[in-house]
Structures
1.
Amino acid sequence: GMTLLVLSVGLAGCGQQDREKDTTPDSDYQRRLIERLIDAAPGDIIEIPEGTFQFDRSLMLTTDGATIGGAGMDKTILSFKGQVAGAEGLLVTASDFTLENLAIEDTIGDGLKVNNGKNIVIRGVRVEWTDGYKTENGAYGLYPVQTENILIEDSLAIGASDAGIYVGQSRNIVVRNNRAEWNVAGIEIENSIGADVYGNTAINNTRGILVFNMPNLPQPGYQTRVYDNDILNN
């Protein structure tokens, strides 16, 4: 079977030098996490501990089969308030990817973008712009595009200047038990095939849940089911 490598970023090493390093500013943590993502191998579990970590550039993952997990969407916080480089918080171009139990805050552009992957799980992830709704906030919170077999559940998107949860040009999708607040569009399914959208709460968005096809894209969407959602005050 596949050996799971548990990589605990920020907790590895027990020497005095390592402990001192962990109390230095987050630029050190940023560097180590970027290196860990670059060096990721299939099957790696990259654990991010409880705390708020500051990043000034995008994080990227290109390796299939990795899991990135935190201690909870209110406990492990990746803050991009000082972001100066990159368009997203986290950009994933990989398959068999899971992101769970952490928050991505205040990105310049999209919070999490997943491009061209298969078998994607996004669970217990919060993407938020913490200064409230502004037109200069990033466009999309959770943003998988051109993906296949995707599950987004138990997640929260707040303050996106376009869509909180947006699935585009994808196939075989479940979006369930999420909450979208104060976005222009709460949840949006565009040019996608076989999406089930249920158990979600969309509140205080301009529009709650949208399903549509844009012209001139490679794939027209069909077979989307939207049911048992709470759509309030949009």
2.
Amino acid sequence: MTEKARLWVSRILIGIVTAWNLQAALVFILWPERFAPGFELTGEPGAVAVRGTGILFLMWNVPYLVALWHPVRYRLALSMALAMQLIGLVGESLLLLSLPNGYVLLRASILRFITFDGSGLLLLVMAFWLVRRDAKSKG
């Protein structure tokens, strides 16, 4: 695969993860009442908590967007996105393990985040692997 093709495939992989993150952010911000029950939250406090999580998702996307622009040139941003994705996956897994029995909805919500972050991590690792040679040759 050519250097240019690896760059574009890497961008597509990063773009998928970024789009998932932005979509999650927007639906949490625009329709928090749909998601609050999944975290066993209710009313205005639940909506505010979910909307706040959506705002955090937007903030967390900054390195993803920079990496998407040019994953070779901004390899540090891609590395940060990888680290953030791994922290999310590990943290959510620890949350799930620490959750007492009986929280079926909350457990299901955390499992969705684990799946979401695990899939994203896999795509970002693939993107990082694709551009690693290009970064070395530019280095």
3.
Amino acid sequence: GPSYLAKHFLGHREQGAHWALQTWISGGVEWQFHHHRLQASIGLLHYCNAGLATPNQGYNIPLVIGVGYQFG
């Protein structure tokens, strides 16, 4: 979905605008214990401006790890 990047650069890669599209691909597991849930996930995050601005040197964040705990 749409996202706002604070800077045009990430390392030496450049986006032509602050607005970009974010794509998140991940997989994970969830365990339930009575009224509590524990979640773990691993994924890939990609930002690009879909050619709407120049340059369009998309950013890939190859390893995103998520952990969640829900109670109640």
